[in-house]
Amino acid sequence: RHNMLLIGRDNGFRFAAHWRYAQSKAAAMLAQQLYSRFGYDDELRLEKAAIGCLGEAAFRHFLHSQRIPFQEDTTDFSQARSDAFDVAIHGKTIDVKVAKKSTPNLPNDHWTYGYPQEQHPASKDYVVVGLVDFTLGIVAFYGWISGAQISRYPVVTHNAYAKFPYETPNHEFRYGDMNKDFQQLFRLCAATP
Question: Could you tell me which of 95, 93, 88 has the C-alpha nearest to residue 55?
Answer without folding.
Answer: 95
